[in-house]
Amino acid sequence: MSIEMQQKLAKLERERNIHILYACEAGSRAYGLASPDSDFDIRFIYLHPKEWYLSLDTNRDVIELPATDSIEISGWELTKALRLLRKSNPSLLEWLQAEKVYQQQGYFTARLKEIQQQAFNPRACYYHYMQMAKKNAQKSSSMEAKTTKMVLHILRPLLACQWIKQKQTFPPNHFSLLVGELVEKEELTQKLTDLMAAKRSGASLYQENSTINKFIEQQLQTIEQSASSIPGGPENERDLTLALDELFREMLHANGTK
């Protein structure tokens, strides 16, 4: 599958006249929650030729391809990605710690991960995951029958918030790592392990479990109370912007001068 993905990315580069600097796996497979019928979600950061940036008009900065053969591919143009990194965008931070990387330019990836440490904003990420958990919980409550996938989509951001609160670092992608590090009660750990196994096996409907339901309810009740105590981002955003500007110029000079 890796070879197929790389071929698709190479074809995309030729057809769109872009240079892909980084491409990875995201979604359920990155979270360790893929079932047999799960899509492959490929995300990437790309650069246009220099002339693309020398225009009075604002050009589209996202590429989204129609899903085919259970593969979804989408990417962000480099300046968009760097602006989002400056805001400590959690989706981008998840990409940068993906286990499965299909394509990358070594210097770019290393430099981006260095700047990522400077850009990390615990409060911004906490609020992102908090809103995600609340939104998914609300959506789940309106469903006639809860799905395993939706319950996990509530649990994962709740645990991500707990991780940020306790460790003040960005949470890992893999759901089992969050459970193993944060959940102390053996009964809850076992129930969450069973839930992961059910999702991986392809079980769609959620088998109601009072232990998991109670944990979700408790976390949703307390999550907002902790939000104000989470520290904010870097004090000197100017230095961060200068570092991102420099990286953009370096990549444009090295790859975007066609």
Topology:
Layout: H1 2-16, E1 19-26, E2 40-47, E3 62-64, E4 71-77, H2 78-86, H3 90-96, E5 101-104, H4 106-119, H5 122-141, H6 148-167, H7 175-182, H8 186-201, H9 210-227, H10 237-255
Parallel strand pairs: 2-4
Antiparallel strand pairs: 1-2, 1-5, 3-4
Helix pairs in contact: 2-10, 4-10, 5-6, 5-9, 6-7, 6-9, 7-8
Task: Please provide a written account of the structure.
With 258 residues, the chain is α+β, with helices and mostly antiparallel strands. It has helices at 2-16, 78-86, 90-96, 106-119, 122-141, 148-167, 175-182, 186-201, 210-227, 237-255; strands at residues 19-26, 40-47, 62-64, 71-77, 101-104. It has 2 domains: 2-119 and 234-255, Beta Polymerase, domain 2, CATH 3.30.460.10; 122-227. Helices cover 57% and strands 12% of the residues. Strands 3-4-2-1-5 form a 5-stranded mixed beta sheet, with helices on both faces. Strand 3 and strand 4 (71-77) form a beta hairpin. Helix 6 packs across helix 7. The longest helix is centred in the middle third of the chain and has 20 residues, at 122-141. The mean pLDDT is 94.
Distance between the termini: 30 Å
- pLDDT averaged residue by residue: 94
For CATH, the homologous superfamily of the largest domain is named as Beta Polymerase, domain 2
- Please report the number of helical segments: 10
Low-confidence stretches are none
State the secondary-structure class.
alpha+beta
